[in-house]
């Protein structure tokens, strides 16, 4: 199996479908199918089983998977080592973040960065999905949760409180909620992932058993837009809500332990040496510290 075969194999393993694997690699579905069939013929073994839920690895495929992942790590390290020789602040940086952070912080940072370093090209990828930085799905990630991967260099960029907000129109129609009322007679817009994980429905630690949930959203950008449209009350990061012109309710109160108060930036800059199960030692990479990522993080920190 060569590296091209390994890429096809890993793409089908991760996507589970020929279409998904073809999209990831940049070829058509028929090519994926032919390459997998050729690998299985060359190895005289079945690597995947086709099930109702997609392609699943066989026992032989599980064994091959470990080798393919090692090839991927070696190829990634090779590219980083080769590109790290160039000390100029030029080239392309892939940055992964959410749509809210991209709109409010990264785009202003990008404008400032471009003025100082016009030869750096930024590819901004906005999604709620967590990317795999060691496998170069992105060079830098800006998120509101701290990653658990010890191989990443992590920098805290900002820390924000969370308050309760609504639009002027909503408050003109419904009035201010009273503390201790359970938000009786009010409508709520909630951030669905945090709301589902809560044992008790609360806003700023205030029980919300008297309120009606009119909408659940899965991004902060959609939450902000829903509040601006007057759909109801909702919790939001204070700087983002105030930039949007929302009205803060009970400004003396804020969530004591907000689920997303902190913004982190991380990248595979000077990755820690790690001894893998195979015994192979992958040395630290210095590509991004020498090229584009440091000025990018500097400008994001200024805007935040």
Helix and strand layout, with pairings?
Layout: H1 3-15, H2 18-25, H3 29-43, E1 48-51, E2 54-57, H4 59-83, E3 91-97, H5 99-116, E4 120-126, E5 140-143, E6 153-159, E7 162-166, H6 168-174, E8 187-191, H7 192-197, E9 202-203, E10 206-207, E11 212-217, H8 220-228, E12 234-237, H9 238-243, E13 247-249, E14 262-267, E15 274-275, E16 281-282, H10 287-290, H11 293-303
Helix pairs in contact: 1-2, 1-3, 1-4, 2-3, 5-11
Figure out the total of helices: 11
The oligomerization state is single chain
Average pLDDT rating: 77
Q: Which fold name is given in CATH as the topology of the largest domain?
A: D-Maltodextrin-Binding Protein, domain 2
- Give the CA-based shape: elongated
- Radius of gyration, rounded? 24 Å
Order of helices and strands: HHHEEHEHEEEEHEHEEEHEHEEEEHH
The CATH superfamily of the largest domain is: Periplasmic binding protein-like II
| Largest pleated sheet | 5 strands, mixed
Please count the beta strands (DSSP E, at least 2 residues each).
16
**Which band does the percent of strand residues land in?**
15-25%
Instruction: Name the structural class.
Output: alpha+beta
